[in-house]
Amino acid sequence: MENVLWAVVLLLGSMNAALLVKIYLMRKAAKEIENGLADKLAEETNTLLSISSRDKYMRKLAVSLNEELRILRTKRLAFQQGDLQLKEAVTNISHDIRTPLTAICGYLELLKETVSQAPASHYLSIIENRTEALKALTDELLDYSVAAWEEQEIVYEDVILNHVLEESVAAYYGALRKEKITPDIYIPQIEVKCRLNKEKTSRIMGNILSNAIKYSDGDLQIILSENGEIRFTNHAPAMDEIQAGKLFHRFYTVDAPKKSTGLGLSIAKTFAEQMGGAIGASYQNEELTIWLSFAKQRL
User: Fold this and answer.
1) With contact defined as beta carbons under 8 Å apart, do 239 and 254 qualify?
2) Bridge partners of 186?
3) Partners of 193 in the beta sheet?
């Protein structure tokens, strides 16, 4: 009887050891699949998953995942090709539209010099205004296509945000005065240095100022912090929190009749993120604040 009990104990021990080995091998295979799948998704490669396990269920899982990877790569390639074709189409169309618009603007200037009657002058003024608006929108669309699909390496340099902000406000000073907006600006005495692309940084600030000019209720406060964050705040009673959250969406405009494609802030967001910065908006007590942060690029 004792021998039988020992035999049962040895049998159970052997089964337990075999089960533990089986579990270990399955966990190892699962880890191989996890790591392999992460690598395949992160890299542009045509290689497939491979595992050391001989377990038919784990190998079947690997085969199924490889099939899904093939489908994913096919769809990714189609998306990339479509993305490139869209970029080329937008760029070509923008250039094609810009050329005749430039000619139209030139001939309108000549025509204005020859027409003196009040009704005709009024109509010409309207045509000129709409043509200039269309030209500006075409330029904005072209700029967005370049920003969204830009593949060139960004050239970085040591940038003093104090100076870039001052230059941007000065460039828009005439437009601000035209809308009777006198900005209240705070710039610290200490130089706020960041590692950025100066041209893109200027473009971001310019687009934010342009947005303030369109939607401000007559005021604008600009605060540059020593940590590399800039806050642009203005009264915008016609806006709400939902609209503020959509400001960086492509083609979104608060007021459809405004002369804008809604791409200005979207371009600003693209440029900011390309340089490792962050941008966002908040709305409280009828005040819109657009914040721009380059804290991680601070020198």
Assistant:
1) yes
2) 223
3) 160
Nearest to 111 by CA among 96, 98, 100, 127: 127
> What tokens appear for 272 in the block?
């900011």
Torsional sign, CA 58, 64, 67, 68: negative
**Tokens standing for 138?**
């075409």
- Gap between the Cα atoms of 262 and 140, Å rounded: 9
- The CB density around residue 60, as the number of other CB atoms within 10 Å, is 10
Per-position pLDDT tens, the chain of length 299 = 666 777 766 777 777 777 777 777 777 777 777 777 777 777 766 777 777 777 777 778 777 777 877 887 777 777 767 666 666 666 666 666 766 777 777 777 777 777 666 677 777 777 777 777 777 777 777 677 666 665 567 889 999 999 999 999 998 888 888 888 989 999 999 999 999 999 899 989 998 998 888 878 889 999 999 999 999 999 888 788 888 888 887 666 665 444 455 678 888 998 999 999 999 999 998 899 999 999 989 88
Burial of 208 (0-12, 13-18, 19+ CB in 10 A): buried
| Angle, alpha carbons 89-90-92 (nearest 5°) | 65
Calpha distance 163→157 (Å, rounded): 14
For the chain, the first-to-last Cα distance in angstroms comes to 82
Sign of the C-alpha dihedral computed for residues 233, 239, 243 and 247 taken in this order = negative
**Per the structure block, which two tokens stand in for 207?**
């687009």
CA gap 39, 41 in Å, rounded: 6
